[in-house]
Structures
1.
Amino acid sequence: MNNIRSLASGLVLTVSLFATPLYADTLNIGIYGEPSSLDAARVNGAVYDNDVLGDLFEGLVTLAPDGRYLPGVASEWASSEDGLSWTFTLRDDAKWSDGQPVVAEDFVLAFRRVLNPKNASVYANLLYPLKNAAAINKGEADLSTLGVSAKDDHTLVLTLEGNTPYLPTLMAHIIAAPVPSHLVKQYGNDWTELDHIVTNGAFMPKRWISHDHIETVKNPYFHDADKVTLDGVNYYLTEDLSTGLSRFRAGELDVMRDFDAQRYPWLKDHLGDAVHLHNQLATYYYALNQREGHPTADKRVREALNLALRRDVIVDKILQGAVAPTNALVPTGTSHYEAQTMPGLDTTVEERMKKARELLKEAGYGPDHPLTLKLRYNTRDDHRRIAVAAAAMWKPLGINIEQVNAEANVHYAEMARGNDFDIGRASWVADFDDASNFLGILQSDNVKNYGGYHSEAFDRLMAEASAATHDGQRQQLLEQAEQQALGDYALAPVYSDAARNLVNPGLSGWEDNAINRHLSRWVTLLH
């Protein structure tokens, strides 16, 4: 039985392929997971969190349909000559959905909540450029020392640890959205309950039926409300991609936020312009558990797994060429960065398998001591097919794979705990176009470091890159950091992902972009 979080009525369905919905100004989106919270400080960090919270909240900076960065709550900003201080001027007409003004103190409180170690925010590291942020998040400094202050209601000042030229792009992420301080002070963490919540984005939540859908309506107090044509947006949990395709073809969904890459040729033939496949800064990989007691803590085992993984076969045979194989974490095309490569993967399959067998023998595995590994993935048919293929590739090495799957939120919670897997499916989609956003997930203190990779050399290079004042020096340090991690076989990259969406041709305002983020405020349903 569904858990109804509000008694408001109105499940909206549509009736035919690409048909106009019964309520023409309501956009219906299929998302492949349910947000764990409407509080950015408490989400699990998945794409669908951005889909929903990105429509409900607006940060200092926002995104255009094509992915360009635009003024959001901030009307303008400027940095000091040394780049260590940034001043954001808030627009006069920014309001919460209860009519209260959005003020600088709302951002101060938001940033402190994210970095408060009690909240264990998965996105906390994105705010590490702020002065004392890392120390606060590790419990080594007081929240009051964070480099954020409200000069007055309309002026926010950020003080940084080092020069961070990409800071405005960070401010467009959901983690940098404000919180309504007047409600947080009254309700604490319960401020996001539907009876209490207010938002400052184009939409506000009306109803949430757990494991089914979230309904939102237009926020009349949004500063650009006059230009928002939609009356609301509904987000339908659609983990099964075949079900999502069926609902899209039936006209029940205007947008489906993913499709099975294996079906791309068929989809293109049958749905034409509704099929959107676009280059994206994203990497699909397997985390390799390096915690004590796991066979994958041995570098030789991790190298063997990487050597035997035939990424070209996975891409060409399973995913029909809809993505590109990779042996790196940072995708090709990332700005101001030269693509790196994992050592030893440029030889023939036969040479790689021979080397892999030698490594496993050195590690003590063989016919008398077979290696069994647990591979965990979130339940979805394409993840299952890839896991089956990978297991078959490792089988000739004498490796037995035990497969375990769970729905997305459970899967990532288990991955974060770091115990019940040796190999874990994961992916990273760029929050912003910078190599540090990918490499950061391998830092020792990052909660997204599912494999528990720890390298003093890697951490030092990342720290030096963060402190670098020259762009060329910073790029070189980041590239060295990735080479360190790839040489340690810290993970098993599989492919550089592409943004896959099904989009009703009867709408405008949707544009493909490199970070695959799409704000519904720009969308218009055509009649």
2.
Amino acid sequence: MPFDRADRDEPVAAAPVRPPLSVGERAQVDSLRAVRDDLAADARSWAHQLTEIAALAWRAQQAGGSALRELPMELAGSWHISQLTAERWIGEAERFTDALPLTLALLGEGRLFRHQAVAVRQELDPCTPEIASKVEAEVLPAGAELCPTDLRRQLTRVRLRLEAEQLTAEQAEAAEAEKVGRRRTWTRPTEDGLMLAGAVLTPEQGVAWAQGMDDLERRERLADAAAGVVRTAEQRRADLFASLPAIALAGMACDDRWRAQADIPGGRTPLTGVDGGMLFDRDQAAGPVPPQWALTAEQIAAQITLNIHVPVATILGLSQQPGTLDRYGPVSAQHVRLVRPKSYRRIMVDATSGRPIAVDDKPTPAADTDTGRREQIRAMLAPALVIDADEPQHDPSARLARLVDIRDRHCCGPGCSSSRYDRDHLEPYARGGKTNARNLGPVSRRCHNAKTTGRWILLRHNDGSVTWHSALHQTYRRPGPWTPPPKVDIYAEPPPRRPQAKPAKSEDDAETDEPDVPISQRIRPPEPQKPPAPENTHNGWNDDPPF
């Protein structure tokens, strides 16, 4: 929920007064500047190469005939590269000149380094040239001050919004369904006698899988310590990954045997009755009682929590601003609307910067229908008083820690995006610093130690950005992780959608999974019964004719 704040404007802090640099430190500064000059020269040289390669391709195309087809041969012979590399360089040069002219211009000026330009090209490769040009025009040249990780996040967020704005609701749904339909798994042998295995998942599936693997790896670590087994964390993860099908099949077999004993049809019938109540009463002595390990899909899923941060206008269908999935990054507005949340938690943000300033203590269970969820969201728009109260202890409470984690998301050090951090007091607690939201922020252990020694000085700003003054008297500024909320009338009604006729369902499609049906409500057909064993009719042997 956007809120205006009276403390938005703040004076620009001047660089702190520091003692003069030593001879060794001045040499360090000279080396820093020399390498930066080399990076700028490399960027200008690469921009010149891209321009010339694109000119070669254009002139070959104008010449007609087989000139363009023979150009890779010419480049391979002249520059001692393969023809495949020559074709890749031609395509890269044409992409920069046609779709990314601003990136190429900043490269030529030395204001954008090669590794940043590569991040721009890779992130905007799936776009049309028109969308790519609009994205780079919105992100650059300000984005030239970002490391590739932060630059990719901004590019992705803008790209998802612009692509969604070009489509109708029906087209967006079709595109999202086509993208989600590319889920798959794959295996491939390696040259050294091992096997590669992987999967293409939806963002929420991938994050849930990563969280589950983290929990399983921690359990295996304790088991290894008790058994004296020596394995690295990555080896434990690989062994668990290989064992997952066997673990799932063993659990299904145990579950099927118990359900067969309890005379329950279907291998995945929910453990709830028709009226919504529990199918079994654990306190009732009579009747079948499920074992302690029998968990429903809801109980299993409840052990993994996924957090998606979404503007209110996006949920209400009034904006195409993308959401942000923790441990993943930006996700499209259409994908966010397809997610069926279990609960909502209101986050109040600054209306100008989008920086969170308060978080509800408890989540609100989500309604079952779209209309009910919309009413819940509108009810959350009621005004609320935000107070940044001081806490007497050093370590923040769970409520304050939740706000800091949601607000800052990762370490704010130069080029550091570590999700493992300390909640550091900007003004040290030992010197009177308060334990409150304004004075706390996440800093990784390396960045924390550099700040604690006093060699690095950290300044936090109200818009979420930070400024670091380094030990070599250099100044580095990093913007905050949030963007301003969309400026729309959140009380307006979303644009009407055309009614879409559903195709008739054939008999062959009767067993097809419906995407809107939760997994817990899908019934896996019971395993077919094994054929009865043949009867022994002749001295204990089944050898009657015909043989």
3.
Amino acid sequence: MKYLLKCFSRCGCFLAPLWFWALPAQAVDLEGALTSDSALPADITVPSFYTLNGEAYSGEIDSFTNIAISCSLSEVPSDYTITRAPSSLSAGNLTYNIVDLPENFWDKNLLEISGSRTISVENLTVNLRDTKTSQPVLGFQIGSGATLETRGDFLFFDARSSERWYMTRVAFRGSGNVKIGGDFTIDSQVPNPSAHNLNSASLYVYTRTFSVGGVLTVKNSNGDYNILQLSSSESGTFTRSLGGLQITQRGMIQLAGNASAVNTTELILTNSGTSEYIGGLLTIDSAGELADNKLNVRMTANDAANGRQIMRFTQTQGWSMSTGVFSDSPNALNEVEVSAGRLDLGMYGGMKGGRLMIMGYNRPSEAVFSATGTAADTEIGRVVFDTMSFYRGTVVFDLAETDGDFIQVDGAMTKVSGASPLVLEMNVSAYDLQAWIEASERDEWNADLMSFATEGSNVSADDFTLKLQDGITGKITISELDGISTITANLSIVPEPAAVAAAIGLAALAFAARRRRG
């Protein structure tokens, strides 16, 4: 660049254009304002909608242009949409500051993207400052072929000052695509709400595809429900790809397909770090008839060594609104597959999954499954599946003196063609194991790990290998009773060198004694 500038300066031409071309682009901060007197829906792709430093803007909008739109409505708009994007747009940060919403503002689209248009921004933030309606729904309508994309994060922040009951609600609708490059967060921080059984923070995802490269978090500051509705009332398959799911307080995953139009949700987890979900798995309840909606969970971590998702399914009291009733569905969990990363799964009593698949294709340590407890910070749990199959991977078992992880497979357990032995990793120290063995006055400690139907299964003890902590030795055995096979780990302590020497000495004395008798 310095050489080119020197050459052009000698000839006395094009120096100024090259100088400006060499400078980095400068960010521009535009402002837009919406009131009940504004013509709605407003077109956010038109530069003339905005002002720059208080003056009408006539320039271009590009990826270095930050946009802030304030919205203060005293009346409910007659149109269902507040802002729209009839053309594609690439911009910097896009921020909606909702200063106030009127009474009876139940459900409106904050942004509608039509046609095969793409709105791509760096970060998208919605700040709800105040509202006279306790439960407004602010939606994003993504038309067929349209895409809403953030290269960075999405944040919906509810800090309304109202002391009435509240529902923080965000909806993504339509048959288009949503692509969040970074984290997606709904953060409800209503300071002093009055008590109400509907107080909650909710995300409704109705688009066919919805992807978050980072972690999806739904949280509130009042200990209330955090709801993630993963599908609409339509039939078919919905795909949700998340870099982690973080809901650790009164969570509810809701599947909204009707009994006459059930659907399946593919939840693909691409974690690079650890995330945790604690809560229920619910489906539509029509007068006691649970819709047979299904959730498939597939762990495909981008970082196999560090990507981990903990999912603790608990029982709830259900959820009831005028739009529908949701109840716990003990059979809604269908396929659970681990191909990269670690998945810890906790089930409440009576819950059962369809098929457990451990399908790592690299090192066994890169595809890990473990049962876990349903309460926070508990490790030991029991899970139940109809069937189980594996190719390569690891199952971690947390053990205690009177309890331990257990996987119950009601049907067949099968290894697929070319499978490697499944690694069974025992999470117990030699110190604890020795204490248990001494207390039991036995030579070894036996831990039942898994059971499966003998008929239809094609595994033997040779298809499993133990991974043990230092100072422990053991082997795998499989026993059969009444058509049920049980996999057991027989563990013992590796003798200390002095003990080994003493044992050898005793054996030598016994051998010498036999020779003298001979």
4.
Amino acid sequence: MGKKIGGTLLLLVTAGFYWFLTWLLSLSWNLHFGITWVNIGIISIVVLVSIAIFVYRSDQELPAWLGAGVFIPIGIFVISGIISLINSPVFSAKKYYNYVAERVTVIADNEEQSAFPNLIGSDGDTSNLPLYGSPEAIKRAETEMGKYPALGSQFELLDEDLTSQSIKNSLSYVIPLQPKSVSKWDKDQGNNGYFIIDRNTGETKFIEHSLKYTTEAPFGSSAMRKLRSFDKHSGITDISPEVDDNGVFHYVATTYDQSVMGSFKKVTGILDMNAETGEITKYGVDEIPSYVDRVYPEEFFSDYISYYGKYKHGFWNSKIGQKEVQEATESFSVVYVDGVCYYYTGWTSTGKHESSNGIIMMNSRTGEIKLYQTYGIAESKAQGVAEGKVQEKKYSAGYPLLLKVAGEETYFSIMRDQNQNLVGYAFVSYKDYTKVAVGENLKEAQNMYIKALASGSTSEVFDDSVYETKEGEIDRISNEVVEGTTLYYVQLKGSNQMYSFYSKLEPKSVFAKAGDKISIKYIKTEAEVIAATEVDLKQ
């Protein structure tokens, strides 16, 4: 009797152990194909092994049916593997390609349109140009936290949850707090809030907001564990913070299905959890709230464009012949254009990472993809060019973004020193890498770059329609010394526009004064301060 009770307890303990592991590791009973079969196989093994142990400890012979039963989980694994292989890119590459191709809009570079995504936005607004990256955001948040002594003793920044998103039409970083140790976690209070860092101005705010659920919280306060327990029938991605326009902090996970193609993840909606109350709402793809930027995670962007670039002519072509095989360049970024968040990266022929065949972007809310077929140097090449410009200082260039400066397609990068401190900005021409400028501030770098463009420009780069000339009397003039060269600022009578030029353009400028006649030639731009390409002082 005791042996039977012991065997029964062993069976229960084994089943309980499997459930515990499932819960602890945040595994779910996903009903999309593949995971279900694996779960069934594992359960079969657990049950059969438990019965075998029970029978063995009861001093009874092992029944023949139990031995034959071992082939059940083996068969399940074999069948699951075969079907998964059939639905993998090896046999279904064209399906993967076609599904993504339906989402792609190709914009070719021709006389009627320019295949160039101006990442500042269509209206030339520079308020969302990211002048601060994640290292600067973390440092600014740490500095701001010093204003709140009680925070520093109990909490630290949850760097892993740093995300870039639009909040009230501004591109910002969001970084929540987390307790320094499990012993300091109060499940009723949670942490005290989060930081918002404007990526354009660097303005940093601490938002006091009781977050009772975070990604790193222990036990039942784990955001991921709570989301998985809410929906056990869908595939769930990693989660990301989203802040709505009322300052409420949410954790959002994308739900997906893999029942159609084995490893292809099709988005079905999101799970949206209020991090303070723990309330969870499930939304379909057509019901997503407006404050949610990230419906399609970064991994989906990477997978989708990989399928699109590799599988146009099938799986084996991507490995052997590689006809028309394209791939993303080495990294990607998140940009905010005209109110919409995009993932953005360069596009190049496989194996050619110094040149770019275009720019590919995906709307992170809708999954729609745009491929701009424009040709120039790759991001890594632009970074190397910017670093080479100041190689004696050993600066490193951040991942560059494309924008237009003085009508020229241009890479823009943040420059940092060896301690990851922001030390300036760089501009590199997308078409001609010899045109490059690095400055300690945005205005200086932009003026130096425009000068570099103009000094070596030819009719192939700029035609006369790009230039304008203004003549008039000097109303105000001032100067400053930049790297040993005098930089002048001039405002003409009857105009609020400011122009800048270096003394080398007009040696007589040292004698210039208000009331003097002057002629200024420049490249058309909407900049606050326009850099001159030619100056003629008429005294």
